Amino acid sequence: TALFDSLTEQKPDQLLELIAKFAADPRSGKVDLGVGVYRDETGRTPVMKAVKAAEHYLWETQESKSYIGPEGDPAFLRMLALEVFGERHAGKPVAGIQTPGGTGALRLAAELLSLDKRRKIWIGTPTWVNHQAIFASVGLQIGTYRFFDIGTQTALVDEMLTTLRNAAPGDAVLLQASCHNPTGAGLSRQNWQDIAAIIADKGLLPLFDSAYQGLGHGLVEDAAGMMSVIEAVGEAMVAVSCSKSFSLYRERTGAAYLFGDLQASLNKGVGNLASHARTSYSMPPAHGAAIVAAILQDPSRRQTWVDELNEMRIRITDIRRAAAEAFGQFRPELAGIGSQEGMFSLLPISPENARRLRAEHGIYMPDSGRINVAGMRVEDVASVAERIGPYLA
Ligand code: PMP
Question: Of the residues 130, 176, 281, which should be mutated to test ligand 1's pocket, given the most ligand atoms within 8 Å of the CB?
Fold first, then answer.
């Protein structure tokens, strides 16, 4: 009868464990390449100036914290859609619901997809560690294909296209819009066109995970591949996270959007997402979304945000350039880090050596070998690479 006694012990999240171990490490030369948040050159993850300005504005003008509803803030949804999808939004009707972060959006999308028990969702591996767990938690069937080869640091686009060609009509396919976590691998315009053609031809349903817009090549550029697919297909879903692009991590800010041909069907879709929200968390936290709306509705705050995001992107690009040179000296293929996008790259390293790097050198990365390049200062890249080099596989 003892419920809690009978439970299976759950493994703690490795990245959260790493944070604690890193904090407890007294060595001065320690380097945290583990945690998945942006860091500036002083190692901090600051509140953006545009966010502070919006919070100030909200403090002065917000008159009530009464409930809004499961769909969240309509102004946030409208302004964010404009930013992510552009004015034309692929020439298709779109409808959305505010969610607790990108994770909440993925979970709601998963609930809809799981209504058809024959449907599979196809996921390229490796991917963000939570993806498979989210889809498994709603009982969705998961199919995987190899997306990336660590040795050559290249995306296995042909394996992906073959998998999609063999998928059943109605199957879903998860695609990261840009700045792939954990590989940083980008797709060419041609790759996206090939993907779009197969998805349209086979009647597949794309679910985009857009969690790093603006940190790859720019706000518009990072959405271009996704928009070309949405334009070509019947229906699509998009999970947007504002955690990285607005540095709002703990405010749990995101949205799920649906694209299709009929506004009435989209509204029904959002109604279904809202009903899942209602039985799970009732309604999303308001503060982060109010901040995003206040930024995007005000040209001067929006410009401040765009400038800050650009600064972050340029810093990441600078680190990547230095890392390509430094790691490339140990493995020529690792020069590929320079043309990858976003915060993450995947090093060829054994779990054993990842542990040894932590113990012997105070260099922290998860056993998978994923590194957050923003965890380094440009001027430290060479020395960090010197220490990691001998441990590479
Ligand atoms: N998708 C990807 C690819 C991610 O890396 C993350 C966060 N690390 C998320 C979604 C979810 O972000 P959040 O729920 O914090 O908005």
Answer: 130
